[in-house]
Amino acid sequence: MMVLEGMILLVPLIVILFYPREAKLSVIFLIPACLSVMAGLFVCRYGKQISNSSRLVVFSWFYGILLAAVPFLMYGDVTPVQALFESVSGFTTTGLSVLDVEKLPHIFLFYRAFLQYVGGLGFIMTMLLFVQEKDSAVLYQAEGHPDRLMPDIGKTAKVIGTMYGFFLLIGTAFYTIFGMPFFDSVVHTMCALSTGGFSNRMDSIGYYNSLPIECITVILMLIGTTNFSLLLLLFKGRIRDFCKSSEMRFLGGLILITIPILSGFLVAGGKTIGEGLRLSIFNAFSALSTTGYATCSYSGWSESALAVMILLMIIGGGLGSTAGGIKLARVCILMKNLVRNVRKKMVPDRTVLLTYYHKGTEKELLENEQIEEASTYAGCYILIYILGTVLLTFFSGCTLVQGAFEFASSLGTVGLSIGVTNFNTSTICLLIEIVGMVLGRLEIFVIFKAFLVKQRISDT
Questions:
Q1: How high is the pLDDT of residue 168?
Q2: Checking phi first, is residue 209 left (phi over 0); if not, alpha (psi -120 to 50) or beta?
Q3: DSSP 8-state symbol, 23
Q4: C-alpha neighbours within 13 Å on the C-beta side of residue 347
Q5: What is d(CA 365, CA 457) in angstroms, rounded to the nearest whole number?
Q6: What does the alpha-carbon distance between residue 39 and residue 31 come to, in Å, rounded to a whole number?
Q7: What is the DSSP letter of 103?
Q8: CB neighbour list of residue 252: distance below 8 Å, 6 or more residues apart
Q9: Residue 142: what pLDDT?
């Protein structure tokens, strides 16, 4: 992992081929990359194996985040916490930033986007594209990947990597066709697929003021927020099985309900019907997919409209995708259980009510174990969200709605901002958001298992 993460820092050097004037910046990436590779080779030979799979995952992420912060720090004009914040925001695919992207060199703009592209897959998944060992399946699951697309874990990683690369090529091509500069196209495609949201424009997607570009972005965000196993069904042309999925049906129903409501709030706030509908469609998808691209400023939005956006950010995207949040699958399970419990109150006591959950090709009876997992995670998520909101509101001096919006964006790894996060944000507020981003990306319990549970890596 240390060798791999060192090599990740070498990839941005490709940009120098197109922008040779930035060659002087190569040392900023070469020094930490080479040191990490050498340290990794040393540890491979003399180090001891980490016996806890969750601990190895957490180490990989923490080490990668610290290493990725070094180029930002060496570039200058940022504090160590700001450099760390940018690294965390990149690898966790959040997209909040404290940098002025209009002034950054191309190599750093590409670097930020590539961090999100790798972070979307995950370090373990990226490693499995090249190396598989006997403990690969345990690590794969420990990083938060619930499904195997193929019987072999190595083939699963390669299928996911192939799909990820294919959509990168397609997205870049379509962006370029519809008028976006090639460099911008690569950056925005990587960040849309990873549901990251980093942009090389201060106004994000709104900079282009183009309906076709917004439509392409929505499609890429949907791809990024969709479970990889469901994407494979689309690749195989099994559209009917894809549409049967409870997760996708819940996503469709949620969008059909929230977009008209959000449009109504925007129209009531002074937007025309056309403007309200266009803004609500794009920004609702951006919030729900936890991508974080924006087409406008939220400072003029009503609290009712912001509340809808907060709700969508908390729900989040697909389980097993690059998205954050509680996840559609868990919320869908909780809603199904709620409906079943309400129905129980209305039928005779001896009536048996069966509730099913569709995973595309599979139809499973909803079990107590699934409900317990979903409710436990959702409960912990909400408690952390409330605590983070209160702390961020207190230390930043913003309103409760602003604090709730900003921390929902951090914990959900979304990246939308109402203005609380910027270059002048205090260190304590940045640290609060960093904790939220890490907990949201690693799904809370991985960190708990790493430090509180003794577990052999060979355990299944």
A1: 93
A2: left
A3: G
A4: 10
A5: 31
A6: 12
A7: G
A8: none
A9: 59
Beta-bridge partners for 363 = 358
Give the SS3 label for residue 121: helix
Per-residue model confidence (pLDDT) at position 401: 93
Dist. CA 59–CA 256, nearest whole Å: 41
At 224, phi and psi to the nearest 5?
A: -65, -30
Report yes or no: 420 and 406 within 8 Å, Cβ to Cβ: yes
- Cβ atoms of 415 and 196 within 8 Å: the answer is yes
User: What's the Cα-to-Cα distance from 129 to each of 19, 123, 424, rounded to whole Å?
Assistant: 29, 10, 40
Asked whether 37 and 14 are in contact (CB, 8 A), the reply is no
pLDDT value at position 133?
A: 65
Question: What CA–CA distance (Å, rounded) separates 415 from 125?
Answer: 23
377: which 2 tokens?
């995670």
Rounded CA separation 190/172 (Å): 9
- Asked whether 410 and 437 are in contact (CB, 8 A), the reply is yes
Place of tokens 């944000």: 425
Distance, CA of 295 to chain centre:
19
- Regions of the chain with pLDDT less than 50: 455-460
| Distances, alpha carbon 150 to alpha carbons 136, 147, 320, in Å | 14, 9, 15
Return the structure tokens found at 272: 């025309």
Q: Are 377 and 444 in contact (CB under 8 A)?
A: yes
Spatial CA neighbour of 427 closest among 398, 399, 392, 458: 392
Which residues are 357's β-sheet partners?
364
Please give the pLDDT value at position 221.
92
Environment class of 80 (CB within 10 Å of its CB; exposed 0-12, middle 13-18, buried 19+): exposed
**pLDDT at residue 320, as a whole number:** 74
Q: Name the maximum alpha-carbon separation found in the chain.
A: 77
What does pTM read for this prediction?
A: 0.89
CA distance 91 to 68: 9
CB atoms within 10 A of CB 340: 14
Tell me the CB-side half-sphere exposure of residue 158, using CA atoms within 13 A: 9
Neighbours of 392 (CB within 10 A): 26
Torsion, Cα 119 120 125 130, to 10 degrees, reads -70
**Three-state DSSP state, 356:** strand
In whole angstroms, give the CA distance from residue 381 to residue 360. 27
Strands (E), 83-133: none
Cα 324 to Cα 442: distance, rounded to the nearest angstrom? 9
Q: Note the residue count of the chain.
A: 460
Residues 6+ apart with CB under 8 A from 181: none
Give the C-alpha separation, 169 to 180, whole Å.
14
